[in-house]
Design a protein that fits this description.
The chain is an alpha/beta fold. It folds into 2 domains: 2-167, Rossmann fold, CATH 3.40.50.280; 198-479, tm_1862 like domain (pyruvate-formate lyase- activating enzyme), CATH 3.80.30. The protein is built from 19 helices and 15 strands. The protein has helices at residues 34-45, 55-58, 62-72, 86-99, 110-114, 116-122, 135-146, 183-190, 222-227, 237-250, 268-280, 297-305, 320-325, 332-345, 362-375, 392-399, 429-444, 447-459, 461-479, and strands at residues 2-7, 49-54, 76-81, 104-109, 128-130, 157-161, 164-167, 205-208, 211-212, 233-234, 256-259, 287-291, 308-316, 348-355, 379-384. The radius of gyration is 22 Å and the shape is globular.
Length: 486
């Protein structure tokens, strides 16, 4: 059966829908659609013919999208969703549903999974939402439609049958992640590394996932809560190493692999096992991974030996009270010790900092900035708090009346940049955004940091220098504005 899998266009820009905080990024970052790719691979393995369209990456606008769908004539079309783009996503999905009488349209992604009934009531022409992890759901749905069956019999969905919206029950999540198709194989068939960019990595880079879910309970993190329901599973080290090998074979132009797990370092033991598997395969591809501040020095050194170049860590705040308020499970002291270990291991660090968590004050924000300078990461990001339906932090702020609006268009600015809709007692949303813009300038325009970057670029002009220049080329127009969101 013919199935179209679509990452739809939004704002005619490089809208990074797969990012944990979907937006058009100031750095030019555009995430690979790895969840859709896994779904595509599962459908193809089951024998279905798939048209996989990543519209933001390819610059495919609405008219061209509908032309491509009309030419392909799918029996089922899958649309990805996110909170900032949801009204556009629903409109496009509705048009697709009305184009062909037998085109069954299903929504996937974080926003539709968190609010399936609301989405289906806003878009009554859409057939269903495949909630959470949808690989197996899409395959069973396609098989059911192909055989003339009833979609309401497929678990893991919320369906709209003639205006009657119903939950089809819970689907067990995949326990054996090694059973999933290699993303490398799907990418090779459908996508081009040159269409994607990750500011912290060398260009061109490729993204993969070595685990799903996270055992930790950060109240703001959307993927573990909405897509994976807190259930952590990991691929075997050998499976990961095999995919690295495939990336090298399929994409000789790729300069780096980005491991986009919520937490690659759930335990240092597994990190060392993955590193050992990469070493045993003589891995030559540099790589980057998201980690926690509990990562051991031995694991860091093994990662470095296996080709790891940079680690990304959510420091979040310089205030222990703030870290505790979002159930981060780390301490300010751990953060400082982590940075010291990374330096000893020779790994670069990209540090992530948030503004606007419960209990935030001007004083705690200044603590965060002072810590950012003291930690001295290679690069840093400062984001206003982004709360998404389905997360504990969204529920808390909604119950406390802290949300300025529930118009999801306001989750980004008119041009698609990150926005904030949370008002705190001493820190209204506009002040949180302004603080992040100013913190970014204060961090990156320090003479000491500029000297460090010039020295780094001079030592490694073809790698670090090229990466820095490419990211700065997009980022500078925001960095030097009076207000970064203007």
């Amino acid at each position: 059966m013919k199935v179209a899998v679509v990452n739809p266009p939004f704002l005619n820009g490089k809208f990074s829908r797969t990012s944990r905080s979907p937006a058009i990024n100031k750095s030019g970052t555009l995430y690979w659609p790895f969840w859709l790719a896994h779904g595509t691979g599962a459908l193809e393995r089951a024998g279905h013919e798939v048209l996989f369209l990543d519209c933001p990456a390819k610059g495919i606008g609405e008219k061209e999208l509908f032309r491509l769908l009309a030419d392909f004539k799918p029996r089922m079309t899958v649309f990805d969703t996110s909170t900032p783009s949801i009204y556009s996503d629903l409109e496009l999905a509705s048009v697709a549903a009305g184009m062909m009488e037998e085109n069954y349209v299903v929504l996937v992604g974080t926003h539709a999974s968190a609010l399936p009934e609301q989405c289906l009531r806003l878009a009554p022409a859409v057939g269903a939402v495949a909630r959470g992890e949808y690989d197996a759901t899409l395959v069973e749905l396609a098989d059911t439609l192909d055989g003339g069956g009833d979609p309401a019999d497929v678990p893991g969905m919320t369906v709209n049958t003639g205006g009657q919206i119903a939950d089809t029950g819970t689907r067990n999540m995949i326990s054996d992640l090694d059973s999933l198709p290699f993303l490398a194989d799907v990418y090779r068939k459908h996508l081009d590394p040159r269409d994607y960019f990750f500011a912290a990595a060398r260009y061109p880079s490729v993204m993969t996932i070595t685990s799903r879910g996270c055992p930790f309970r950060c109240s703001f993190c959307v993927w573990p809560q909405v897509m994976h329901l807190g259930k952590y599973r990991a691929r075997s080290p050998e499976h990961v190493a095999e995919e690295f090998k495939l990336f090298g074979e399929y994409f000789p132009e790729v300069m780096e692999v980005v491991i986009e797990d919520d937490t690659f370092s759930v335990g240092s033991d597994r990190v060392e096992q993955v590193a050992d598997a990469l070493i045993a395969r003589n891995n030559r591809l540099p790589w980057t991974a998201n980690v926690r501040a509990n990562l051991s020095l031995d694991a860091m050194r093994k990662m470095k030996e296996a080709g790891c170049r940079l680690i990304i860590v959510g420091y979040e705040s310089g205030s222990q009270e703030i870290l505790d308020s979002v159930s981060k499970g780390t301490t300010v002291e751990q953060n400082m010790e982590f940075a010291e270990r990374a330096g000893k291991a020779g790994l670069l660090v990209h540090g992530c900092f948030m503004a606007g968590n419960p209990g935030e004050t001007p004083e705690t924000l200044e603590e965060t900035f002072r810590m950012a300078v003291k930690l001295a990461p290679d690069t840093a990001q400062f984001f206003p708090v982004m709360v998404y339906p389905g997360t504990a932090l969204y529920r808390r702020y909604r119950e406390e009346g802290r949300l300025k609006t529930e118009n999801y268009r306001r989750w980004v600015t008119p041009e698609g940049l990150h926005n904030c809709i949370v008002d705190l007692p001493q820190l209204p949303a506009e002040v949180l955004v302004q603080w992040c813009n100013q913190a970014r300038k204060r961090f990156y325009l320090r003479p000491r940091y500029l000297a460090y970057k010039l020295f780094q670029s001079a030592r490694h002009p073809l790698t670090e220098g090229r990466r820095t220049l490419r990211a700065f080329g997009t980022f500078r127009k925001y960095l030097f504005r009076k207000n970064g969101n203007e």
